[in-house]
Amino acid sequence: MLTAFSGGDIRSAEAPLLDAGQGDALMQRAAHGLFGVALGLLREAGRGTYGATAVVLAGSGNNGADALYAGERLLRRGVGATAILTGDRVHAAALEAFTQAGGTSVRLADAPDIAALAAHAASADVLLDGILGTGASGGLRGPSADFVRAFDAAAGPRAARSTLVVACDLPSGIGVDTGRVDGPVLAADATVTFGAAKPGLLIGDGAVAAGELNVVDIGLDLSGFPPAARTLEGSDAAALLRLPGTHDQKYSRGVLGVAAGSARYPGAAALAVGAALATGVGMVRYLGPEAVAALVHQRNPEVVASTGPIAEAQSQAWLVGPGAVDDDDQRLRAVDAMASGLPVVVDAGALAAVPARVGPQVVLTPHAGELRELLAARGVDTERSEIEADPAHFARQAADITGATVLLKGYTSVVAAPSGALFVQADATPWLSTAGSGDTLSGIIGALAATLAEDDGAAGRVGVAPADLWAAIAAAGALIHGRAGRRAARSGPVVVSDLPGPIRAVVADLVEERRLAASP
Ligand SMILES: NC(=O)C1=CN([C@@H]2O[C@H](COP(=O)(O)OP(=O)(O)OC[C@H]3O[C@@H](n4cnc5c(N)ncnc54)[C@H](OP(=O)(O)O)[C@@H]3O)[C@@H](O)[C@H]2O)[C@@H](O)CC1
Ligand SMILES: Nc1ncnc2c1ncn2[C@@H]1O[C@H](COP(=O)(O)OP(=O)(O)O)[C@@H](O)[C@H]1O
Ligand SMILES: [K+]
User: What does this protein need as cofactor (predicted)?
Assistant: First the structure.
């Protein structure tokens, strides 16, 4: 599990070490970590150090100092380095060390031509971004903002540019705790963050700008601080798989009831059911129109179908809503499922049926447009673009108002528990943004919920509080869905109806990972 702490908590954890006179030692550890990653990237790109060039962007704070000390180390390895001092102040000792090692520097405020300076930076092999770190307030402003715009214009988009950009602690321009990007941002190939990840590096636009994330231990003790966000890794999702045992039968493994699909959108039911079966479940019971059941059966004859109400179909968990629009029976099933006290995954058409207050075992899976409607129905008016800019804030607000666990879909999937716990997954690929993709995500989460509904040890296995189990399950679902999408995309555009194969393969890999971890 990757754990992120707020910028404020990281600074609080630094305080006792600074009081003990260890500020310089911390900074040297940070600089060494940054240097190591920059060196590794240069080597990976086949550029080595002798004859290579680096530009260090150094702001007025300690972030700039870290970058200058990393630049000093590059200079000592034979890299030619220039520093661009972006603030009106600079850490004197760090600049002195950089200069002593042979580096030259220029003040951005004195530069006659920002475009020419940006073009120089865009011709370097590596750029260290030390403009802003945890001391950032708001988006980039002033000459730093102008410089980043000019650099982007000169270097081109990240995927096409030749300069390797390594962010010091975080890409300058992102919200440390939100990932919000309100102006120009220096998108990094890699980010080297110190002490622990910050939430902004995991969420939304901040996660996109961070590139590959490296966490460098600088000796901070964060044990007394609450995690601000967590990301499940494969081993965590593997711990949440309930593997069948010798005494299991189909009912004990868990039955998922699915009330999805309608005359208008029959396919959503087939997609959700296919994904649930591929994730692994004792049985799927399908409730809905006979014509939809027939379509489900074409692909999955093992499904047990009926046209009755929720009360007549015993299940361990429910999935309601995919493709269920303009269908009173499906709406009633959604309402009954949410009132049952059982875990329920609520997607698409059923989101409008969520009552005023539910419990964390009700997992809502809206995209930003659906979340906007859910909030508007509760008196919170906002724009879809605002939700996309600050997904954690709005997912949390929805979890707080409804009492449900809320998974907000997008490039990163953000899961907010009503306890305030936050999980963020960035396992997906934009190839998954295709119709029906969300139906398969809800099927995966439904299957996990059905198999774990009566498993008292599940929260402990993944190291979360019992109340946050449903959020962890939703995050694990996003991980499996995202990895399956990536796997599918290896051989071309993702076709959602083909996703069960990759889902099974991802689950098989996770089972193997768990077996290897358990064997001595
Ligand atoms: N503490 C430690 O021991 C350790 C800390 N570490 C490192 O220190 C970093 C935190 O350093 P920090 O606190 O000095 O803040 P930092 O982010 O460098 O700069 C803040 C300055 O930037 C400016 N500014 C603010 N907002 C702006 C904006 N939107 N647009 C433009 N400018 C803006 C503002 O300056 P002003 O504008 O007021 O002149 C402000 O003073 C941390 O990320 C890590 O890298 C590691 O070395 C480990 C040990
Ligand atoms: N740009 C993106 N990058 C990665 N994953 C994405 C992106 N856009 C959407 N997704 C994922 O694809 C799925 C889309 O779900 P949804 O919008 O509900 O589609 P549908 O309603 O057609 O089923 C979600 O799991 C979401 O996280
Ligand atoms: K930075």
Answer: K(+); Mg(2+)
Full domain range(s) for residue 22 = 2-231
Annotated binding-site residue? 139: yes
By the 8 A CB rule, do 302 and 242 touch?
Answer: no
Q: What is the CATH number of the domain that holds 495?
A: 3.40.1190.20
Q: Are 389 and 180 in contact (CB under 8 A)?
A: yes
For ion ligand 3, residues whose CB falls within 5 Å: 129, 167-168, 172
Question: Cα of 59 to ligand 1 centre, how many Å?
Answer: 7
User: Residue 111: phi, psi to the nearest 5?
Assistant: -70, 125
141 ligand 1 Cβ < 6 A: yes
Q: Judging by DSSP bridges, how do beta strands 229-231 and 2-4 pair with one another?
A: antiparallel
Atom of ligand 2 nearest to the CA of 366: 18
CATH number at 103 reads 3.40.50.10260
Contact 85, 105 (CB under 8 A): yes
Report how far residue 418's alpha carbon sits from residue 395's, in angstroms, rounded to the nearest whole number: 10
Q: How many domains does the chain have?
A: 2
| Whether residues 104 and 162 fall in one domain | yes
* Tens-digit pLDDT profile for residues 333-368: 999 999 999 999 999 999 999 999 999 999 999 999
DSSP H or E stretch at residue 297: helix 290-299
pLDDT band at 519 (very low <50, low <70, confident <90, very high): confident
The number of CA neighbours under 13 Å toward the Cβ of 220 is 28
Instruction: Say if residue 227 is in the same domain as residue 258.
Output: no
ipTM of the complex: 0.93
Same domain, 510 and 444: yes
Instruction: Tell me how far apart the alpha carbons of residues 346 and 358 are, in angstroms, rounded to a whole number.
Output: 12
Q: State the Cα–Cα distance between residues 74 and 80, nearest whole angstrom.
A: 8
Is residue 345 a part of any domain in this protein?
Answer: yes
The model carries a pTM of 0.96
For the record, the structure tokens of 375 come out as 């909030």
| Encoded tokens for 496 | 């959602």
Pairing of strands 413-416, 422-425: antiparallel
The verdict on residue 390 lying in a domain is no
